[in-house]
Amino acid sequence: MSLQNLNMSIAPALAEQVLEKMGLCHYPALTESGLTKLYQTWCRSVPFDNIRKRIQVSQGISGDLPGFTPDDFFSHWLRFGTGGTCWASHGALYALLKAVGFSVQYGLSTMRSPRPVSADSPGHGTLFVRLNDEHFIVDTTMLHGQPLPLQAWHSTHPVWGTRVHRDEGFWCVNWKPLGRSRVDCQLLDMDASAAEYPQRHERSRHSSRFDGALLIRRAGHDSITGIVKGERVVRDARGKEIFDTLSHRQQKVLLVEQFGIAEEIAVQVPADEGP
């Protein structure tokens, strides 16, 4: 599919289907409160995962990456319960926010790391929503509990604790990935072109940190649960993370029973690659 001809919007009927499955009976108000409700509901309903990509790579399937368009992303979520990683998830959330009437912009960022970043790395996709004269960050990867104001801001919440700060001339979001150490997400572009997302998504085909092992995480009301590098990880209401090693079979069972992934999809998930 030509990148220039991609449809990155969704029809009102699809938006209504998505909202209905998320448990929202009507469009949220175009306010900070409405945005918070939609973001929190998304994080509790749509997993951040690499399930479809792991299956595609293991089976040698060519063609567009999973979730390459919002229509593809939502059709699979509605039917099978799967989500996607940052480019797919944020492309879909952008389309939903746009459909319900929010002023939303594509954003580009990078996760800071002490290790050298490959020149081919696509970076990280995020979103910015404008409400009156304020901008808010909404990110389905970071699961930060509420839209983050683009200003110096700090939450010490044990589950969602996040800090927005300036460093070396950039806005950064300091957050804690499930089962890993805290990291800064450095914001690079608050108004990226629509073409950037599919281009960077395609660049992630062979250069993603999520390629070698199953990854999934989803927010609860006061917790985050996921599978990270062969372990079930739960961050509880106190902020404590509990780890349990899983066999490949146990991972597939958990996908169905804990995350609501269709069994016909879960059985196709390949075993994690070696270290």
Q: What characteristics describe this protein?
A:
single chain; 275 residues; 8 helices; 13 strands
Notes on the structure:
It is built from eight helices and 13 strands. The protein is an alpha+beta fold. The strands form two sheets. Strands 5-4-3-2-9-8-7-6 form an eight-stranded antiparallel β-sheet, covered by helices on one side. It starts with 11 loop residues before the first helix and ends in a 9-residue tail after the last helix.
**Total of domains:** 1
Main structural class: alpha+beta
CATH architect. name:
2-Layer Sandwich
Shape by Cα distribution: globular
Strand order of the largest sheet: 5-4-3-2-9-8-7-6
Provide mean pLDDT, rounded. Answer: 92
Summed up, the helix count is 8
Tell me the helix content: 25-40%
What is the terminal separation in angstroms?
Answer: 34 Å
Q: How many E-type strands? A: 13
Q: Which oligomerization state do the chains in this entry correspond to?
A: single chain
User: What name does CATH use for the topology?
Assistant: Arylamine N-acetyltransferase fold
In short:
By secondary structure, the protein is an alpha+beta fold. The protein has helices at residues 12-21, 32-45, 51-58, 70-80, 86-100, 196-203, 248-257, 263-266; strands spanning 48-49, 103-111, 124-131, 134-138, 148-149, 153-155, 162-167, 170-175, 183-192, 215-219, 224-228, 231-235, 241-245. The protein has one domain (3-266): Arylamine N-acetyltransferase fold.
